[in-house]
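Bit of a strange request maybe. I'm writing a small parser for structure token strings and I need a real example to test against, not something I typed by hand. Could someone generate the tokens for this chain?
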Amino acid sequence: MDTGRLTVFFEGPFWVGVFERISDGKLSACKVIFGAEPRDCEVWDFILKHYDGLRFSPAVAVEGRQAADHPRRRQRSAREQLRTPGIGTKSQQALQMQREERKTQRRQSGRERQKIEKQRKFDQKRQKRKEKHRGR
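Reply from user aminoacidic:
Good idea to test on real output. This should exercise your parser:
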């Protein structure tokens, strides 16, 4: 059973949305920056158009909770969620893992680019030497 949740909150100068997806007991998260305070219809439109393109973090194991059956308990938990703004610690861990993963990918691609550029310059220098040697 897959469940999802979106939490929108104000962080610094921007409004941020954190999508949390729980699938097979594992939580993955994705952070989206909205900018100005989004209206409900804008959030819904964003979900419909861009949800498939979101890049979720690697999954983090999470223990399952049983859903509360009693309406008063559900009301109490909804009130409690409204009182505590922000995202859960598991989501923060998942987002941190995603940041670290992107950082290592960026470093690897940077090293590769640097290596290719160095080889290109070396080949260019060698070609120049060859042309000078031929007397051109």
